[in-house]
């Protein structure tokens, strides 16, 4: 990595960290997950030297390769935040420290089975809400979440962390900062879900997400720049 590239990466990272300190309730700043899909291990290694330990990947193959490339950085926590495929579940459970994108009973069962087989018990999962009910997005429709939460709570192999949501595209930070009704509803539902955490907020809506009481921001572009 060029010196100048490192410098601008440092600056973007510090800017987000400062924003978090500034906007969050003291001592309750949400956890910052750096979403690294499409970015080189070198960039992650640089963030690691700045103290970042938590990264998230979307694609299984890219995740394996990046994890291998960063074996010299001990203590990284990896979240998996991509679409799940049943034939990859076991390896994801083996390699990732948590899965944030669990949208159905079927996947809950498959992860529970894999967690038993890999002896990673209890395995941390977040339930993914599909806020718009769009067919092109995965996740559980809002109306069916209470049922999914209830089912997840019966599986001793799992540690139920809370809810995650990819918001509708038009949910962007703007001048007026009223928390949308959807985010209020997600916060309310998250409070009934395991450890009651809410994973909400990406590069475009992080102010709104913090105002809504998010516990986990998943930031890619605002720190790492545009994806290749
Ligand atoms: C890519 C991705 C992000 C990060 O999006 P940015 O807009 O680049 O911050 C967050 N969450 C999920 C699930 C993603 O797939």
Plain-language structure description:
The protein has 228 residues and is of the alpha/beta class. The protein has helices at residues 3-23, 41-49, 60-69, 89-95, 105-118, 145-152, 181-190, 206-211, 221-224, and strands at residues 31-35, 54-57, 77-80, 98-102, 123-130, 140-141, 158-165, 197-199, 216-219. Strands 1, 2, 3, 4, 5, 6, 7, 8 and 9 form a nine-stranded parallel sheet that branches. Helix 4 (89-95) packs across helix 5. The mean pLDDT is 95. Residues 35, 37, 58, 81, 166, 202-204, 218-222 line the site of pyridoxal-5'-phosphate.
Protein topology:
Elements: H1 3-23, E1 31-35, H2 41-49, E2 54-57, H3 60-69, E3 77-80, H4 89-95, E4 98-102, H5 105-118, E5 123-130, E6 140-141, H6 145-152, E7 158-165, H7 181-190, E8 197-199, H8 206-211, E9 216-219, H9 221-224
Parallel strand pairs: 1-2, 1-9, 2-3, 3-4, 4-5, 5-6, 5-7, 7-8
Helix pairs in contact: 4-5
The chain binds pyridoxal-5'-phosphate (PLP).
Query: What is the gyration radius calculated from CA atoms?
Result: 17 Å
The N- and C-terminal alpha carbons lie at a distance of: 15 Å
Morphology call:
globular
- Overall pLDDT, averaged? 95
Quick take:
By secondary structure, the protein is of the alpha/beta class.
What attributes characterize this protein structure?
228 residues, binds pyridoxal-5'-phosphate, alpha/beta, 9 helices, nine-stranded parallel beta sheet
